[in-house]
C-alpha cells in the first residue's frame, strides 16, 4: 500500500511538502492564526479557534500574541499550558506538551530537518525540477517543564518531567527528568528535587 505524503511526513520519511493535502492543512492553519493573532478577536473566539486548530488541548491553556504554527493538527498540549509571545511551533511532525508546561517568549520548536550532505538536500522530480528534501521527527515535552526565553528545540528531542531549560539554550538531544539544562548545545547543569 502506498503511503500518502502526510503519512510519509509523520513517519519521518522524505515527503513532498507541495502535496495538496498538506498545503490545505497549512492554509487552514494560516486562517486560524489570523484570527488568533488579531488583537481585536475576543478571548472566547480566540480560545475556541486555538482548540479547533490544535490536535488536542487541555483546560486552562493560554497562548500569547504572534503565535506561529505550521499544521496545528500535529500539536497536542495538556492542561494549564502557558505559551508566551512570539513562539513558533514548526510541527511538521508531532509536538506533544504535557501538563503545566511554561514556554517563555521567542522559543522555537522545529520538527523539520535537512540532510547534512549538501548533495542530498535537493531531490529531482520526474519533470527534472528540483525540490528541497525534508525529514521530520517528533518533539515531546513532559509535565512541569519551564522553557526559558529564546530556546530552540530540534526534532527527535524528548524533554522529561520537572525540567527547566535555561534561556537561549539549543536542545538537540534528550533531557532527563528532574534537571536544569542550559547552553548551546543544552547540557544538564543541575539536578532538581523530584516532585511529590
Automatic annotation (TrEMBL):
Its EC number is 2.3.1.-. GO terms for molecular function: galactoside O-acetyltransferase activity. Gene3D superfamilies: Hexapeptide repeat proteins (2.160.10.10). Keywords: Acyltransferase, Repeat, Transferase. It is an enzyme of class 2 (transferase). It holds the Pfam family Hexapep. Residues 8-58 form the Maltose/galactoside acetyltransferase domain. Coiled coil: none annotated. InterPro entries: Hexapep, Hexapep_transf_CS, LacA-like, Mac_dom, Trimer_LpxA-like_sf. SUPFAM superfamilies: Trimeric LpxA-like enzymes. Belongs to the transferase hexapeptide repeat family. This is Acetyltransferase.
Amino acid at each position: 500500500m502506498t503511503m500518502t505524503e502526510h503519512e510519509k511526513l509523520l513517519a519521518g520519511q522524505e515527503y513532498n511538502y507541495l502535496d495538496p493535502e498538506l498545503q490545505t492543512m497549512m492554509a487552514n492553519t494560516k486562517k486560524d492564526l489570523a484570527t488568533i493573532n488579531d488583537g481585536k478577536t475576543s478571548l472566547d473566539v480566540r480560545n475556541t479557534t486555538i482548540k479547533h486548530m490544535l490536535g488536542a488541548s487541555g483546560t486552562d491553556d493560554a497562548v500569547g500574541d504572534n503565535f506561529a504554527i505550521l499544521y496545528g493538527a500535529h500539536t497536542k498540549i495538556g492542561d494549564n499550558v502557558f505559551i508566551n509571545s512570539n513562539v513558533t511551533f514548526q510541527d511538521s511532525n508531532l509536538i506533544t506538551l504535557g501538563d503545566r508546561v511554561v514556554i517563555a517568549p521567542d522559543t522555537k520548536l522545529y520538527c523539520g530537518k535537512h540532510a547534512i550532505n549538501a548533495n542530498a538536500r535537493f531531490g529531482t522530480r520526474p519533470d527534472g525540477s528540483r525540490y528541497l528534501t525534508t525529514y521530520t521527527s517528533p518533539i515531546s515535552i513532559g509535565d512541569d517543564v519551564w522553557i526559558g526565553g529564546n530556546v530552540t528545540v530540534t526534532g527527535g528531542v524528548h524533554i522529561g518531567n520537572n525540567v527547566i531549560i535555561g534561556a537561549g539554550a539549543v536542545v538537540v538531544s534528550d533531557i532527563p527528568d528532574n534537571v536544569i539544562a542550559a547552553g548551546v548545545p543544552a547540557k544538564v547543569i543541575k539536578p532538581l528535587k523530584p516532585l511529590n
